[in-house]
Amino acid sequence: MRIPPSRGLALLAGTLMTLSLAQADGPVVVASKIDTEGSVLGQLILQRLEAGGIEVRDRLQLGGTSIVREALLAGEIDLYPEYTGNGAFFFDMTDSDVWHDAEAAYETVRERDADNGLVWLTPASANNTWAMSVRGELAREHELATLEDLAAWLDEGGEFKFAASAEFVESPQALPAFQAAYGFTLADDQLLVLSGGNTASTMRAAAQQTSGVNAAMTYGTDGGLTALDLVVLEDTLGVQPVYQPAPVVRDEVLDAHPEIEELLTPLFQALDLETLQRLNGDVAVNGLDPRDVAADFLADLAE
Question: Which residues neighbour 201 within 8 Å (Cβ) at sequence distance 6 or greater?
């Protein structure tokens, strides 16, 4: 799950004081965020570089977005996976429509971060943004693949109950934006609002059909989606900002190790939505070690 930049600020100063300054001619210091997806992406990067003959130093699961971002800018780490949509916060552009288009979001954050001495490498096609997901049996029975499909099915009187956090229901950028764009409205009795709920609780409600729930607020690459047989409905109109994960590296480190790009490009090109859901699920649901999950995937990729 992506971690918004606002989290973890209180931990920033203390964490940065514990880091030693990374040097372009020393080991490449690889970091990641502290969530499940951060552990998976971080291990994939770390092991891929190491297998490519690059000496690395492990600083994975360092902290939230603010911590790893500031560490990278300060030269205290060299490389970590970030999300294109977070550029809206990095560059004070939250009102821009550019973040709703994958290519434009990537180009914008790449160009702007070049001024900071940072290089954004090829992103994954997976999009870890806010999503509406339905139970697999519902999707298959009624051929629901997109939010347009959902709107048409609701218009025909389809039975639907959606579990979400209060924030998702109330935020103008979330459910109200989906409803306005796709032309449907959920009544109060079609909502199960979980105060302070996160995606783990909303997905659980859909999987267990709590109070008749058959759909849930999720993130696009949540690890529990596959395990719980939940299907992300595609946001064909681009209502939500795009959050594609991509490696971000200091330019002097890339100059010293240009093979980093060659090693990581095919890796991230292989990370589509279903693949990243599965890898996250192996860790979050099946309890596997991220090191083993990454190693197995890289072995398969090499075949």
Answer: 163, 194
* H helix and E strand count, the chain: 15, 10
Q: Where are the alpha helices (DSSP H) in 166-289?
A: 166-170, 175-182, 199-208, 224-227, 251-256, 259-269, 273-284
**Rounded distance, CA 174 to CA 192, Å?**
15
Which residues does 25 contact at the CB level (< 8 Å), separation at least 6?
Answer: 256
pLDDT in tens, 123-166: 999 999 999 999 999 999 999 999 999 999 999 999 999 999 99
Reported confidence tier of residue 196, pLDDT bands at 50, 70, 90: low
Please check whether residue 144 is in contact with residue 130, taking contact to mean a CB–CB distance below 8 angstroms. Answer: no
Beta-carbon-side half-sphere exposure of residue 180 (alpha carbons within 13 Å): 11
pTM, full prediction: 0.85
CATH of 130-232, one of 3.40.190.120, 1.10.10.10, 3.20.20.210, 3.40.30.10: 3.40.190.120
